[in-house]
Amino acid sequence: MSATAAIAFTLLSPTHLSTKNNSKVLFSPLLPPNVKTTISLRRFLFRVQYGSPKRSSTFTGFKPFSPPVMEWQDCTVKRDIDVPVAVAYKCYSDRESIPRWMPFISSVKVLEDKPDLSRWSLKYKAFGRDIEFSWLARNMQPIPNQKIHWRSLEGLPNRGAVRFFPKGPSSCTVELTVSYEVPQLLVPVATALLPFLESLLVRGLERFATFAESSLAD
């Protein structure tokens, strides 16, 4: 479910279009395609990775660069489903079936020698852009019929959980939370993107409800 994090990361990241005379032309997918900013490549790399350099009060040179401050962003949705909680939990535990209800996930492959690890691939089109990502995730120790949770091991930093709450013998509530890291400077933009990301997760849970309810007929 770190797909939402991947989409958010892509939308918040600049795209490098070309390099000329030690400069790069950049644009953000949140800006119109004709709005571009040309900046020094060296200055851009320093500012993104370490922040703006500041001279020390002595003549010994520059102060050490500091990495950008990162902040976790959470996106949570929930839905009632007309299946027993054990059925919903079993369906969601099948990671390789997730592309059947999450259309932007192209594949999930569980590692044969390490079944707690899985390789995810995402393909999605948003704001006129084709987005592709892959990452390795570890499933943490689950709580049967209550909680499935994970965290990424490489690539985009993300984590998340699916929680299951019984409503009766034949229905339950499924709550999905996805968390991802963004630079603190971009938190306002990430907050503005939340409705779009929530809509992706809501559509996924709607499809999951259909998937889980159809499994009762099998």
Automatic annotation (TrEMBL):
Coenzyme Q-binding protein COQ10 START domain residues: 81-208
Name this protein carries in UniProt: Coenzyme Q-binding protein COQ10 START domain-containing protein
Residue runs in coiled coils: none
Source organism: Hevea brasiliensis
